[in-house]
Amino acid sequence: MRNTEKDKYWREMIRKQGELRHFGSMAIRKSSKGDLASAQEVDLLFRVALSGGMMTPGQLAADMGVSKTIISRLIDSLEKKALIIKERTLNDRRSYGIRVTDDGKEEVDRMYYYYLDPLYTLREQMTSDDFEKLFRLIEAANTILSNANSK
Question: Which of 37, 50, 78, 136 is most buried (CB neighbours < 10 A)?
Answer without folding.
Answer: 78
